[in-house]
Design brief:
Residues 550-569 have a biased composition (Basic and acidic residues). This is Actin-like ATPase domain-containing protein. This protein has 825 residues and is an alpha+beta fold. It has 21 helices and 30 strands. Helices cover 42% and strands 22% of the residues. The strands form seven sheets. Strands 1, 2, 3, 4, 11 and 12 form a six-stranded mixed beta sheet that branches. A six-stranded mixed beta sheet has the order 19-18-13-14-15-20. Helix 20 runs antiparallel to helix 21 (772-790). It is extended and about 120 Å long. The chain binds 2-acetamido-2-deoxy-beta-D-glucopyranose (5 copies).
């Protein structure tokens, strides 16, 4: 299968990356979806793959929940909804960057049991059962932080850099919300990447292309939306290095923000609700737990109906103590979704129209996203584009997160990756708006980034009639989503009069104000720079080419593409202040306080965990002591303890046990540890005794061994010394040294003999008379003493010069220069 070859390629890739850089930062990629999130980790030495969660699953439910004080993630969190509907938060992506009064928020309230509240930034916070409120960004940050920890466990180091996928239609507001959540989670945004583009990168990884572009559509059916991205793939040559690379260009995007798996679930749940109401005549909509249970059941039934013509919905005690059972047919489900049929394939047509291409030029439509497996959706797409164009050659769940990981690796420039370059586009129209310079006059709109503008470009606007400070607004030309504002930001430009005056004074003719607006690689627009610019003419201030527009009533605004005119003498930077009057991203202070809240939560959980460990350890220790006391008389514990000691332990165990299940329930970690230490101090002497009994024979053997070796050495050394003295030869040792060693061994023997004698009279349940620790250390001292002498090198016999003629038979002064160097130790 194709997927296997992809895996192999990725493995090779990981190996290559290890060859290059070794101690470099890891790159995390997260595909944060409405229902599921996936993550991948790129780190030298770690095979590049999707991260597994604690249950070894490759995808993690996008949920966070509280069960009293315990915070849960993933499926555990999602499942809590049926018990604690106000404390379980899922489908949060629908709320990301959405104004409180928007269509997506009201949709969320239809499918979720969570309480939404409007926060100070006019976006959404969620309220727990106990009243604690969390912003959407904070709740998503908790999940990102959870993934960060999973990645760190695999990487064995801190992970900071992250690439997160976003739907291509995500507006500035939504992109800001993603970036804010990333920051709160303690991560750093390397980039945001449109999910279709990420899939395209993944697709290109294992394929080669010719210089003639081939066109494909990435069709991504997710939980909350469906999007189609028209992409061209071609090989190209780098003009500088002449190296080949793969060029991916996004040519068009189409999307439906309100059709997807979640909407199908919702319609299926409506069927269940209706079945319940008809049968039991009770309004289940008022019962949050019941609604949460039916939501989960709808998801289950949808999967069954993908492969079967009917399914039996069964929920025990769904609400009002009623066990619910209903047979649902696929026909019933499909009928309820009839209105959606035309919408499933529409994004493909829209994307093609935006790209200016017809279906005929498309080589394949690559299906991805969890909902692309839903028969209803797949059939609609097959019918629209033709069976032969459908390609199931990427992993529908993982292509985006793997592509995002590869993209992150290429951005970090720390990994040697296949050279793939991608240009992405803006699917919305962004205009710059400002008041005309004449007082009280109208607003002028300039389409600065038309639909399809490439990411990573800049535009410069020249204003030749501005003499005073003014504001420039960046806004969407059309409504981007129901209830979303059009205004993105206001850039206030000040210091204009002074700067123009300065330039004029220095001889510039008709100086202008230039404002640079940027569309970043991650799809954010910003006003990057504002300057006053004028050409300072040196000699003849003659005819200028400034006739353009100067006299016209309308202001002449010229675009120039990122032309850097950095003539110091003629450029003065203007002051630029960005103001958000619609949906503001989180301020630095907001983000800091959110991070502090999350950190406090983390710290609390860690200390709670320590406390639980201390509690459990103490409880376990009490069990162990009880068992020891109850054991038969032959156990080491029994043999080595006195009745009085066992009584003391028994009393303490009973006291501590009673305490643990009363006051102990609320005791802090250090008190719990203190209680354990108090018990340990009673058990320790007993344990020490049987440890000593166990270790005694070996310690004695070793002591005697060194005693014996030393004696052996002394006997031989003395004999040699005597012989050498007699022969008038130098010796390695002096008599004093050998005497000193003998004294040491005798002392050792004496100490050992006394100890061993005493020990013979010690009972098992008494403390030992001689400690094995002391035996070992004394044996070691003796050993070192002996080694020092054994290792001594033989002294050199001093050579007397031949000319003296006394060498052969003359008696030499044996101590002359041949005295062995005394060991100083
Ligand atoms: C003009 O600007 C230059 C540098 O920007 C500054 O040194 C000079 O003082 C200014 N002159 C006037 C008249 O503001
Ligand atoms: C003492 O140690 C030697 C080897 O180091 C061993 O052969 C001998 O069995 C030991 N004796 C006892 C009593 O442990
Ligand atoms: C004593 O002398 C003999 C013969 O030279 C030698 O083999 C032996 O190692 C010496 N003993 C010591 C303890 O140095
Ligand atoms: C030490 O060794 C000597 C000679 O082998 C022996 O007589 C003596 O009993 C030993 N002492 C002990 C404590 O083992
Ligand atoms: C040996 O040499 C030492 C010093 O070098 C000297 O003091 C001593 O008198 C000499 N002894 C003989 C016998 O030559």
């Amino acid at each position: 299968m194709h997927f296997t070859s992809l895996r192999r390629a990725l493995c090779i890739f990981a190996v290559v990356s290890t060859l290059f850089e070794l101690s470099l930062a890891a790159v995390l990629a997260i595909d944060y979806g409405t229902d599921w999130m996936k993550a991948s980790l790129m780190k030298p030495g770690v095979p590049f793959d999707v991260l597994l969660n604690k249950d070894s699953k490759r995808k993690i439910q996008s949920s966070v929940a509280w069960k009293r004080d315990d915070r849960l993630f993933g499926t555990d969190a999602a499942n809590l909804a049926s018990r604690f509907p106000s404390d379980s938060f899922s489908s949060l992506k629908l709320l990301q960057g959405a104004p409180f009064d928007s269509g997506s928020v009201s949709y969320f309230t239809q499918i979720s049991t969570s309480d939404v509240v409007k926060n100070t930034r006019s976006s959404v916070s969620l309220r727990q059962g106990g009243g604690t409120e969390w912003s959407t960004e904070e709740l998503i940050a908790m999940q990102l932080s959870y993934v960060k920890k999973l990645a760190e466990d695999v990487a064995g180091e801190l992970v900071r850099d992250v690439v997160v996928t976003v739907p291509p239609y995500y507006t500035q507001f939504e992109r800001d919300a993603v970036a804010d959540a990333i920051e709160i989670a303690g991560l750093k945004t390397l980039a945001l990447i449109n999910d279709g583009s990420a899939v395209a990168i993944n697709y290109a990884m294992t394929r080669t292309f010719s210089p003639t572009p081939e066109y494909h559509v990435i069709y991504d059916a997710g939980a909350s939306s469906i999007r189609a991205t028209v992409v061209s793939f071609a090989s190209a040559e780098d003009p500088k290095t002449k190296a080949q690379f793969t060029q991916i260009s996004v040519l068009g995007v189409g999307f439906d923000r309100s059709t997807g798996g979640t909407e199908l679930d919702r319609r299926l749940r409506e069927i269940l609700i209706e079945a319940f109401v008809n049968k039991h005549k009770r309004d289940i909509r008022r019962d949050k737990r019941g609604m949460a249970k039916l939501w989960k059941e709808a998801g289950r039934i949808k999967t069954i109906l993908s492969a079967n013509s009917d399914a039996m919905a069964t929920v025990e005690s769904v609400a009002f103590d009623i066990d619910f059972k209903a047979k649902i047919t696929r026909a019933q489900f499909e009928k309820s979704c009839e209105g959606l049929n035309g919408r499933f394939a529409q994004p493909i047509y829209d994307a093609l129209a935006n790209a200016g291409l017809s279906l005929d030029s498309i080589a394949s439509v690559i299906l991805t996203g969890g909902s692309s497996r839903t028969p209803m959706i797949q059939t609609a797409v097959r019918t629209a584009v033709g069976d032969d164009r459908i390609a199931l050659n990427v992993n529908a769940d993982e292509a985006a997160v793997l592509g995002a990981g590869l993209y992150g690796a290429s951005l970090s420039r720390q990994f040697k990756t296949k050279d793939i370059r991608i240009t992405d586009i803006l699917p919305h129209e962004v205009q710059a708006s400002y008041f005309a310079s004449a007082p009280g006059s109208r607003t002028i709109h300039s389409l600065i980034f038309p639909r399809g503008s490439k990411h990573g470009t800049k535009k410069t606007l020249s204003f030749n009639k501005r003499k005073e400070d003014f504001s420039l607004w960046l806004d969407y030309k059309n409504e981007v989503a129901p209830g979303f504002p059009r205004e993105i930001l206001e850039a206030q430009i000040s210091g204009v009069a002074d700067a123009l005056g300065n330039l004029t004074e220095r001889g510039a003719v008709d100086p202008v104000v230039k404002v640079t607006v940027a569309l970043s690689d991650s799809g954010f627009v910003s006003v990057e720079e504002a300057i006053a610019y004028g050409e300072v003419k040196s000699s003849i201030a003659g005819e200028t080419d400034g006739a353009a527009g100067g006299e016209k009533e309308n202001e002449q605004v010229a675009f120039s593409k990122d032309k850097k005119e950095k003539d110091e003498s003629s450029t003065i930077p203007l002051q630029l202040t960005t103001v958000y009057s619609t949906l503001a991203p989180m301020s630095v202070a907001d983000k800091r306080s959110a991070r502090d809240r999350l950190r406090a939560l983390d710290n609390m959980e860690v200390s709670k965990q320590f406390r639980e460990e201390a509690f459990n350890t103490l409880e376990g220790y009490l069990y162990k002591l009880r068992d020891l006391l109850d054991d038969g008389p032959e156990t080491p514990f029994m043999k080595c303890s006195k009745p009085s000691e066992r009584e003391a332990i028994s009393r303490k165990v009973a006291d501590t046990s009673a305490w643990l299940h009363s006051d102990g329930e609320a005791a802090d970690t250090s008190t719990l540890m203190e209680k354990r230490r108090a018990l340990e101090s009673l058990e320790k002497p007993i344990v020490h005794r049987y440890k000593e009994i166990e270790e005694f024979p070996e310690a004695l053997n070793s002591s005697q061994k060194w005693n014996w070796s030393t004696r052996l050495f002394l006997a031989e050394a003395r004999a040699n010394l005597t012989a050498e003295t007699a022969a008038g030869l130098p010796s390695k040792w002096t008599t004093e040294e050998l005497d000193a060693l003998e004294k040491a061994v005798k002392e050792h023997e004496a100490w050992l003999n006394t100890g061993v004698e005493k020990q013979k009279r010690v009972k098992m349940n008494e403390d030992p008379a001689i400690e094995t620790r002391d035996m070992r250390s004394r044996a070691k001292t003796l050993e070192l003493h002996l080694q020092r002498l054994v290792k001594r090198k033989a002294p050199k016999v001093k050579k007397t010069p031949k000319s003296t003629g006394t060498q052969e038979n003359g008696e030499s002064n044996e101590t002359d220069g041949t005295q062995p160097a005394h060991d100083e130790l």
